[in-house]
What does this fold into?
Amino acid sequence: MLARLVSGAVQNVAFSDLHSLVTGFGFELRGTSGSHHIYSHSAIPELINLQDVNGQAKPYQIRQVLRLVERYNLALEDEA
It folds into this structure.
């Protein structure tokens, strides 16, 4: 799935898939408020706010996650 997202295909992504991806990069769910899910990572100061809209992730939020992964050179925990 990561290769698909990196190639720019950020439409029609299941929220559960995005959740699995961000937790794979070491983010932890800190809390929810309605459809908003807040994630933090011990190595970076920024939080990720993701929305579950009818089971789908918002494309702009997927791009934000990808930018953080690139900026902080994060690796999937299985690959670390």
Remarks:
- The mean pLDDT is 92.
